[in-house]
Design brief:
Strand content: under 5%
Structural class: mainly alpha
Shape: globular
Low-confidence stretches: 210-228, 232-243
Number of helices: 11
Number of strands: 2
Distance between the termini: 30 Å
Strand order of the largest sheet: 1-2
Largest sheet: 2 strands, parallel
Order of helices and strands: HHHHHHHEHHEHH
Helix content: 40-55%
C-alpha cells in the first residue's frame, strides 16, 4: 500500500522536488559522485529505493494500510498455525529479504532502476527511457518505461501494443540497449552521477514564465528518425535539467 501511493506520485509529479521520491536526495547526490561511490550506490540501491520515501515524504496512515498489515501478519500467523514453526518461517523470511536485496544490487535485472530515468543522453532532452531487450520477459515488461508512463493503466502484457499502435511517438526516442551495460556505464562514466536526473521545482507550472529548457532542440533530433542508445551516447557533458 505504501509503495502504491509513492509510485502514483512518481507518475503524476515526475521530477517534482520533494514529491517524486524516485529522485535521489541531495545527500545521495553529494556522497555518490565518484566511481567507488556510485558502485556503492548501485549495490545498495534497493535499500535507498525502499527507505528514501520513508525519510523524505512520510505518508499519513489510514485504514487500507492497517488492512494491509493485518493481511500480511495474518498470512504468516496462518503458516505458524499450519505447523511450519517459527524457525522455518524465520529462514523463509531471511531468504525472501536476501533475494530482494541481491536482485536489486549488482544484478542484470536491477539495471532497470538506473536506465529508466537517469540521463545518459548528452543532449538532455529526454527524461524517461525504454528498454526492449529479452530481460523484459523476466521483468513484466518494466523496460517499456515510456509506454508505462504514458499509459500507466495499460497492463504489462499489452505495453508492446502501445508502441506498435503509435510508432510516431516512440520510434525516434533514445532507448537503453542493455541493463547490465547501463550499470557498468553508470559506475564508470564520470559524466553520469546520481545527480543526472531531470528535476522540477514543486508547482513550477504555476509560474507565468518557466526557466528555459532544451525542448526547442527536440525537432532537430526527432528529424533524424533513428533510435539511439541511452547507455552509450558519446561526447558532450551531461547536465541536470531544471524546469
Amino acid at each position: 500500500m505504501m509503495f502504491k501511493t509513492y509510485h502514483a506520485e512518481h507518475h503524476r509529479y515526475q521530477g517534482w522536488d520533494g514529491i517524486d521520491t524516485d529522485i535521489p536526495s541531495s545527500i545521495e547526490t553529494k556522497l555518490f559522485r565518484t566511481t567507488i561511490g556510485k558502485a556503492f550506490f548501485a549495490f545498495f540501491q534497493i535499500v535507498f529505493y525502499a527507505f528514501r520515501p520513508c525519510v523524505l515524504r512520510q505518508q499519513t496512515l489510514h485504514r487500507m494500510h492497517a488492512l494491509n498489515w493485518i493481511v500480511v501478519v495474518g498470512f504468516w500467523a496462518g503458516l505458524v498455525g499450519a505447523g511450519l514453526g517459527w524457525t522455518t518461517l524465520g529462514n523463509a523470511w531471511i531468504y525472501c529479504v536476501l533475494c530482494t536485496f541481491f536482485a536489486g544490487a549488482l544484478h542484470p535485472m536491477s539495471g532497470h532502476f538506473i536506465s529508466e530515468h537517469y540521463v545518459f543522453d548528452p543532449e538532455g532532452i529526454q527524461e524517461t527511457y525504454s528498454y526492449y531487450g529479452p530481460l523484459n520477459i523476466l521483468g513484466y515488461n518494466v523496460g517499456l518505461h515510456n509506454e508505462h508512463h504514458d499509459f500507466p493503466n495499460v497492463p504489462w502484457t499489452r505495453l508492446h501494443q502501445v508502441a506498435n499502435i503509435a510508432p510516431e511517438y516512440y520510434d525516434h526516442l533514445v532507448v537503453t540497449d542493455s541493463w547490465p551495460k547501463t550499470i557498468w556505464n553508470f559506475i564508470t562514466d564520470s559524466r553520469v552521477t546520481t545527480f543526472s536526473r531531470v528535476k522540477r521545482e514543486k508547482e513550477a507550472w504555476k509560474r507565468a514564465a518557466l526557466l528555459p529548457t532544451d525542448t526547442d532542440l527536440a525537432p532537430a533530433v526527432f528529424a533524424r528518425g533513428e533510435k539511439k542508445s541511452a547507455a552509450s551516447s558519446p561526447t558532450k557533458k551531461l547536465s541536470l535539467i531544471h524546469i
